[in-house]
Amino acid sequence: MSNSISNPKAVEHNPPNLRAEVDRLIAQGAFDLAARRLSELWRRDPASGTASFVISRIDELREKTREGLALAKFKLAILRSFTVEPIVPLLRAEAFAYGIDLEVHVGDFNTYVQDMLDSQSSLYRFAPDAVVLAVRSDQAAPELWRDFADLAPEAAQQAAERVVRGYEQWIGAFRKHSQAALIIHSLERPSSPSLGVLDDQSEAGQSGLIRRINRELRRIAAGFHGVYVLDYDALVTRHGSEHWHDERKWLMARLPIAAGHLLHMAREWMRFIVPLSGRTSKVLVVDLDNTLWGGVIGEDGMSGIEVGAEYPGAAYQALHRALLDLSRKGILLAVCSKNNLDDAMEALEKHPGMLVRANHFAALRINWTDKAQNLREIAQELNVGIDALAFLDDNPFEREQVRAALPEVTVIDLPKNPLEYASALRNCAALERLTLSSEDQQRTEMYAAQKQRAGVEQNFQSKEDFFRFLEQEAELEPVSDLTLARVAQLTQKTNQFNLTTRRYTEPQLAEMAKQPEWHIFSIKVRDRFGDHGLVGVAIAHDEGEQCEVDTFLLSCRVIGRTVETALLAHLAERAAQRGRKRLMGWFLPTKKNAPARDFYPQHGFERQETNGAGSLWALDLKSATLRCPDWIKLRTAETTPGGKN
Amino acid sequence: MTDSTFEQVRNVASDIFGIPGDKITAESSPETIENWDSMQHLNLVLAIEEKFRVQLEPEDIEQMKNIGAVAALVEKLQSTAS
């Protein structure tokens, strides 16, 4: 069973009472608490009926709360060749549990081609953030699916090529009309090919050709920004084709998926929706006893705990491998454990069965303080918000405490059986990534270097001495195909040093970069301790005599070492070169961006106006003396592949 | 039929149709429940299959004319399954 954030079997429950409590809380106006109970209800009983209840109450809460629920809005369109309506409530309830208010548009049966080709279609009028193309083999490749035995080998091959060309054409048209993310279902292979075992003796059999189409779909997707493949064939296989399908529902209602698996379809979509909506976790905090190893180190000792290549310790090694895979995707690992420090460190550093070691963790909190407090400290130490934390603990009591004290944390429920730990972790949508930058892959090393820097900083008399000692080098360049993914990622994830907090997708940025009056710069920084990678983005557009800063952000890793001044000076200099007289910029305050509040006034900007959303600042470029600090060695790329900037 | 099966079916129907459980009786049917349309009928079938871990045949689904009939069907399927 794949359970991303819930494991219904693990908890005793009484859902009707929770339903009554939710309604009572709504009637009393305690909307936040009602939302929390609603989420608890879904976690305990993620069934179709519960989903209907949950979404009806979300809709009610949305109407009743004036400032709205603290949820990220996301619009999903589903283009389909089969009935998906019963999946939609499950999907919306699951999204709610991830803090997403999901609006869903479902296309008509088998009109996906017209919908994608016609720029006036209901699909584009809906203005989705993401689109799922859920088409099954019987519809996408009817000749290969139904009448395969009748086809001559060349005709079968041609049919497969036609299918691929079709997809290529629709996706190309889609990208012209929309910048939304596109998630394409791969085609499933027949569970009983028409020629039986003979089919698999050739690459050109029924299965082989569908596999080839799927390979081509991956190639096509890789050619576009924001187009992804959902491996439907693998999803069906994972759950077992014979269990997944329900022929009765298919014939009666065009619903191919059995009742018990509708939730798994919804959760597979969530693995794309969560990263697309930016609700991912940046740090995974793990417990030690009975989570990273079996047993309690303080009682069982080094020779008593279970972790190693054989059963039962192998279950924990499987979890270690999942943790290492996450850290390769740029997710930081941290430890939060109630233990004696010496006992725990001995196991972490010396136990021969451990695949993860102390140095894999960016922060360690091994003490007897309560976990919520430790989690707050970990967030602070790593410079991330509390909502960027995910928490993994075998103990349901600790999990509930963290949920109650810190509702922003993504708490992952572990099943009772340690053999299922690794897959519970691997299925958590908050830990999915759709793109991987080199920054992501090196993040753990970068944080280790950061620890060193922080240690050194305390030994200097003045900040300037420290900046000079750092020997920072910055590289400024216009956005390119190579940096687009990382730039989009930064706009989606940066909360603290972010002046306007505008979120952009890759396709939106690609479109923006094509406009001659728009300028998108990124900054890479390295210093004597290591490479920070691409850590800052500035977006500006010219309008008449002025240049307005649309976006200005810096990763928290480099805040406060004057890199921001270098980036702003570059914007000002370029704007002046293009003949602009003033550099303008909004500061739009959020709950999190206080570190950026005084940025404009500190750099000589004058306030122009203030309204409900924020304040507008301006710098006169003729008289400005904004310069890159002399302790930063600056390199700029003068031209782009496109020749702009 | 036992009370518990009927009550559980009623709870499912209450969720699916969005009406309070005490407004649902064994006689409640598409005639008395406003939004019991074909899509909601499918949702009810799926929720019943999921909840009681049974598999409904097309013939069974046709018999689901009111909530009492649904509960009776669930009991029949559960007794033949065990």
State the distance separating the first and last CA atoms of chain B.
Answer: 16 Å
What is the CATH H-level superfamily of chain B? ACP-like
Give a count of the beta strands of chain B, DSSP E runs of length 2 or more: 0
Amino- and carboxy-terminal Cα gap of chain A: 52 Å
Low-confidence stretches of chain A: 1-13, 639-645
Largest interface: A-B, 23 and 21 residues
Give me the oligomer status. heterodimer
Helix content of chain B: 55-70%
Shape of chain A: globular
| Helix-strand string of chain B | HHHH
- Structural class per helix/strand content of chain A? alpha/beta
Please state the second-level CATH architecture of chain B.
Answer: Orthogonal Bundle
The average pLDDT value of chain A, as a whole number, equals: 91
What is the tally of helical segments of chain A? Answer: 26
CATH superfamily label of the largest domain in chain A:
SGNH hydrolase
Largest sheet of chain B: none
Which structural class is indicated by helix and strand composition of chain B? mainly alpha
Can you tell me the CATH class of the largest domain in chain A?
Alpha Beta
Mean pLDDT reading of chain B: 91
Low-confidence segments of chain B: none
Our estimate of the beta-strand percent of chain A is 15-25%
Brief rundown of the structure:
Chain A has 645 residues and is of the alpha/beta class.
Description:
The complex is a heterodimer of chains A (645) and B (82). Chain A is α/β, with parallel strands linked by helices. Chain A folds into 3 domains: 71-276, Rossmann fold (3-Layer(aba) Sandwich), CATH 3.40.50; 283-431, 3-Layer(aba) Sandwich (Rossmann fold); 461-636, Gcn5-related N-acetyltransferase (GNAT) (Aminopeptidase, 3-Layer(aba) Sandwich). Chain A contains 26 helices and 19 strands. In chain A, the strands form 3 sheets. In chain A, strands 11, 12, 13, 14, 15, 16, 17, 18 and 19 form a 9-stranded mixed beta sheet that branches. In chain A, helix 19 links the parallel strand 9 and strand 10 (410-413). The longest helix of chain A is centred in the N-terminal third of the chain and has 25 residues, at 153-177. Chain A is globular, with a radius of gyration of 27 Å. Chain A starts with 14 loop residues before the first helix and ends in a 9-residue tail after the last strand. Mean pLDDT of chain A is 91; it is low at 1-13 and 639-645. Chain B has 4 helices and no strands. Helix content of chain B is 62%, strand content 0%. Chain B has helices at residues 3-17, 38-52, 58-63, 67-81. Chain B has a single domain (3-81), classed as Non-ribosomal Peptide Synthetase Peptidyl Carrier Protein, Chain A (Orthogonal Bundle). Chain B has 82 residues and is mostly helical. The mean pLDDT of chain B is 91. In chain B, helix 1 crosses helix 2 (38-52) and helix 1 crosses helix 4 (67-81). Chains A and B meet through helix 3 and helix 13 of A and helix 1 and helix 2 of B.
